[in-house]
């Protein structure tokens, strides 16, 4: 039976600005997303029956349709019923390295990997835009996880503009393993506190997104200026998460005084990251922050920027 092994990298948000409401209930965003080398390992195998099986070594990852990887197969089966009938179901094994519910798009990355694997397994030959379209139906971050690298993301986060590759910086990640933040909660809290500042007309939305595209962060990325990127990190969701989640605020403060190039919460949190110019610098920052944080539940990772999205490592017939 055919099987594929894939690498599904996590992402961090170098920039996240909430521009306004959308008619579909989501928010209009202007984000700059960056892949990192911290990645899950995914294996997708053809099975003779019409079932979808998910195994994961992490106890918090569900094996039913609440798992986005499961929904990726369901979506493919719905879109291509005849091919699904011909090839049958799949068994997915996820080796988790990306922390769960952390603001690092781990679930979205897994779903993106499954789309790539099923496309190959069912010999669909989908184009990149077709895969991106399916990815957008699964979640706002899935298209970026598929493509990877460095990108400006607008709309719900699914409209991507690739930016010049940036793979020289290192990242320290820190997360309290007992802490989870609901993404819908974070956006809802932001709307109730800052909804009055939202841009309401389409033209202003476009000009705000354009301002980010031609703004200082994109310029710093173009010049691979790590210090400037560190200074310009931004995430609107910090405005609702930091005041309500002291563990995140403490990590932010510790990283702030650690000598890193810059620090920010990723997505809706609770992971906090810091940018560093080399691996040695990242190890130093990690040691410093470990020493400052009394909380024994904080896990740390040192990784680096990556310029790749989903990667197929091997395929066996
Ligand atoms: O698209 P995804 O399922 O990842 O989004 C999770 C939740 O985050 C949504 O249900 C919504 O509450 C919020 N969200 C939003 N605007 C976006 C992206 C996400 O309000 N552009």
The portion of residues forming beta strands comes to 25-35%
End-to-end separation in angstroms reads: 6 Å
Estimate percent helicity: 25-40%
Radius of gyration: 19 Å
What can be said about the biggest beta sheet? 8 strands, mixed
Bound molecules: cytidine-5'-monophosphate
* Whole-number mean pLDDT: 96
The oligomeric state is single chain
Regions with little confidence, pLDDT below 50 for 5+ residues: none
Structural class: alpha+beta
DSSP summary: helix tally: 12
Counting DSSP E segments of at least 2 residues, the number of strands comes to 12
- One letter per element, helices H and strands E, the order comes to EEEHHEHHHEEEHHHHEHHEEHEE
- Which overall shape is indicated by the principal axes computed on the Cα atoms? globular
What keywords describe this structure?
about 325 residues; alpha+beta; 8-stranded mixed beta sheet; 4-stranded antiparallel beta sheet; 12 strands
Notes on the structure:
38% of the residues lie in helices and 28% in strands. Strands 1, 2, 3, 4, 5, 6, 8 and 12 form an 8-stranded mixed sheet that branches. Strands 9-10-7-11 form a 4-stranded antiparallel sheet, sandwiched between helices. Helix 1 runs parallel beside helix 3 (106-121). It has helices spanning 68-79, 81-87, 106-121, 128-138, 142-147, 183-194, 202-213, 216-222, 226-232, 238-244, 246-256, 279-292; strands at residues 3-21, 27-46, 52-56, 90-95, 150-154, 159-162, 170-176, 234-235, 262-265, 272-276, 298-304, 311-316. The longest helix is centred in the middle third of the chain and has 16 residues, at 106-121. The model has no long low-confidence stretch (mean pLDDT 96). The radius of gyration is 19 Å and the shape is globular. With 317 residues, the chain is α+β, with helices and mostly antiparallel strands. A hairpin with a 6-residue loop joins strand 9 and strand 10 (272-276). The chain contains 12 helices and 12 strands. The site of cytidine-5'-monophosphate has 11 residues, from strand 2 and helix 6. Cytidine-5'-monophosphate is lined by residues 26-27, 29, 139-141, 156-157, 183-184, 187.
């Amino acid at each position: 039976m055919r099987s594929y092994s894939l690498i599904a990298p996590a992402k961090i948000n170098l920039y996240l600005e909430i521009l306004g409401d959308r008619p579909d209930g989501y928010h209009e965003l202007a984000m700059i997303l960056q892949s990192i080398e911290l990645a899950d390992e995914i294996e997708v195998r053809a099975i003779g029956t019409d079932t979808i099986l998910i195994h994961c070594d992490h106890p918090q990852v569900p094996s039913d349709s609440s798992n986005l990887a499961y929904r990726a197969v369901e979506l493919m089966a719905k879109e291509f019923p005849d091919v699904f009938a011909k090839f049958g179901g799949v068994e997915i094994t996820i080796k988790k390295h990306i922390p769960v519910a952390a603001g690092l798009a781990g679930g979205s990355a897994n779903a993106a990997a499954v789309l790539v694997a099923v496309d190959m397994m069912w010999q669909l030959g989908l184009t990149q835009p077709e895969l991106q379209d399916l990815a957008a139906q699964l979640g706002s971050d899935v298209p970026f996880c598929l493509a990877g690298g460095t990108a400006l993301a607008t709309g719900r986060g699914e409209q991507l503009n690739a930016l010049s590759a940036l793979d020289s910086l290192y990242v320290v990640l820190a997360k309290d393993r007992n802490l989870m933040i609901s993404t819908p909660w974070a956006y809802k809290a932001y709307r109730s506190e800052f909804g009055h500042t939202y841009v309401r007309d389409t033209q202003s939305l476009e000009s705000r997104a354009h301002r980010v595209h031609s703004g200082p962060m994109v310029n710093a990325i173009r010049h691979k200026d790590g210090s400037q990127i560190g200074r310009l990190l931004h995430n609107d969701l910090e405005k609702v998460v930091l005041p309500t989640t002291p563990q995140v605020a403490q990590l932010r403060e510790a990283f702030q005084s650690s000598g890193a190039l810059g620090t920010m919460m990723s997505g809706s949190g609770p992971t906090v990251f810091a940018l560093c110019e080399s691996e040695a610098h990242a190890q130093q920052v990690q040691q410093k922050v470990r020493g400052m944080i009394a909380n024994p539940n904080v896990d740390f990772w040192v990784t680096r920027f990556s310029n790749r999205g989903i990667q197929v490592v091997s395929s066996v017939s």
